[in-house]
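Design request, tokens follow.
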């Protein structure tokens, strides 16, 4: 229970903190949550089965309050707490870090995300899924850029429709289940037609949050108008709960429809890789460029998740971690450019490397990680995903491989136009503050460790992945 209680108590306490202590107290809360999650990881035995952290109770309508974790869940908990701490650290020298409500909303977002990853009851998963929308929406609404309301209305409508679809699917499968507990829901035998509609409802909710083509149109504008921390929360964490949901809930609850949904989802993911990659190359706004780059990368991850085999799912977890780390670095770089230059347009930038060499170095390091050079987490994650997609269908694998070309073009183009050439400003461009270079350094250390030792992730989540696959295969009794 401490996984929930600690960030929740810090989120409440920060609301009454003296303003000059808010940023320190919030950072301490993020660090404490990470230490607690690390302790759970150290004491967790990957070969062990599900670990319950909330006693099972039943309500009259089937809610069990069942919470717990296996290797996959605990990995996402550790990633969430690590990323939350890095987001707080990257925001430490901004005025918003001293804002009580802003800091509290970030921690409440953390609580909601932890609930999503720890829920072993379908209704609890849905409740926490909805809870995460509130803080990130308010962060963007209260602290975002001018013109944000139109983008946020679109974001709300998209997510509301997706959430309703998921709720209807949950209610439909619960009709034949004893409770909302994941084991009871997985035990329900479905006809192919019923499974198709149930999986379709989950898919709509997850495809919007990822986002997959063509459900992506809310994303670039929302990322652009949100403050830096809001964009980081959306890109580094919120979309991961949708990818996790595909693996934990969508496929296991309706495996009878996997053969029907496999090709459509893979095709949409691959279209997103190419389509978003091309649009990223054409962008002049560097923050919008990185938003389209995110769509391209997660399309590949979603396609790999649908293969639902051990190697593909292990690669998905590696790539989810890589995407989170790289996204924070890229959006931090975009925010530093905007804060110091007053613009995000690449046509108005240039020569920054001469003015801020430390920033240029770390931006280059993150850029190389983004294009998946060897010895980075992106290299091994994308290599494994592309290998599995190529084994599935060589044409799909070939088209998916264009992500390497597009990624190199739009990332290096953004770096070249912003860093090189004659400086286009006579003002001083301050080099990195201590917290900013520390964030870049931490990100690169984790990226390189995962790139050199991906087996750390594979061995940790592997037994849980295998048990889930076995459970799905055992429950996949197709009813005529």
């Amino acid at each position: 229970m401490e996984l929930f209680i600690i960030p929740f108590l810090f989120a409440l306490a920060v609301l009454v903190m003296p303003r000059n202590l808010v940023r320190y107290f919030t950072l301490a809360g993020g660090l404490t949550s990470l230490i607690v999650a690390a302790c759970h990881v150290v004491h967790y035995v990957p070969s062990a089965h599900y670990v319950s952290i909330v006693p099972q109770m039943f309500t009259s309508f089937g809610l069990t309050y069942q919470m717990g974790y296996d290797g996959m869940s605990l990995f996402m908990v550790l990633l969430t707490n690590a990323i939350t701490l890095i987001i707080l650290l990257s925001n430490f020298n901004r005025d918003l870090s001293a804002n009580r409500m802003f800091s509290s909303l970030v921690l409440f977002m953390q609580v909601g995300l932890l609930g999503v990853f720890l829920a072993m009851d379908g209704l609890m998963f849905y409740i926490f899924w909805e809870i995460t929308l509130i803080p990130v929406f308010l962060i963007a609404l209260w602290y975002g850029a001018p013109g944000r309301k139109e983008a946020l209305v679109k974001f709300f409508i998209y997510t509301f429709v997706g959430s309703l679809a998921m709720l209807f699917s949950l209610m439909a499968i619960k009709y034949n289940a004893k409770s909302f507990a994941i084991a009871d829901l997985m035990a329900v035998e479905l006809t192919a037609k019923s499974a198709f509609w149930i999986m379709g409802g989950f898919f709509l909710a997850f495809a919007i949050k990822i986002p997959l083509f063509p459900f992506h149109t809310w994303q670039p504008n929302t990322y652009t108008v949100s403050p830096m921390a809001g964009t980081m929360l959306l890109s580094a964490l919120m979309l991961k709960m949708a990818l996790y949901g595909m693996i934990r809930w969508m496929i296991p609850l309706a495996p009878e429809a996997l053969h029907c949904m496999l090709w459509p989802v893979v095709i949409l993911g691959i279209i997103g890789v190419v389509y978003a990659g091309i649009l990223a190359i054409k962008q002049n706004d560097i923050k919008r460029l990185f938003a389209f780059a995110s769509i391209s990368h997660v399309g590949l991850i979603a396609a790999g998740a649908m293969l639902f085999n051990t190697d593909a799912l292990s690669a998905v977890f590696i790539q989810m971690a890589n995407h989170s780390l790289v996204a924070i670095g890229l959006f931090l770089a975009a925010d530093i450019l905007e804060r110091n230059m007053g613009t995000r347009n690449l046509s108005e930038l240039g020569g920054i490397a001469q003015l801020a060499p430390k920033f240029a170095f770390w931006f280059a390091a993150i850029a190389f990680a983004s294009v998946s050079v060897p010895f980075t987490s992106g290299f091994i994650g994308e290599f494994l995903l592309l290998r599995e997609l190529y084994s599935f269908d060589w044409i799909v694998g070939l088209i998916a491989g264009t992500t390497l070309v597009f990624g190199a073009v739009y990332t290096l183009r953004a770096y070249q136009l912003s860093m090189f050439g004659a400086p286009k400003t006579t003002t001083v461009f301050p080099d990195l503050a201590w917290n900013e270079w520390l964030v870049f350094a931490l990100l690169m250390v984790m990226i390189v460790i995962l790139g050199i030792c991906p087996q750390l992730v594979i061995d940790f989540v592997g037994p849980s992945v295998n048990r889930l696959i076995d459970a799905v295969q055992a429950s996949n009794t197709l009813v005529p």
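Comment from the thread starter after seeing the answer: thanks! The chain has a mean pLDDT of 87.
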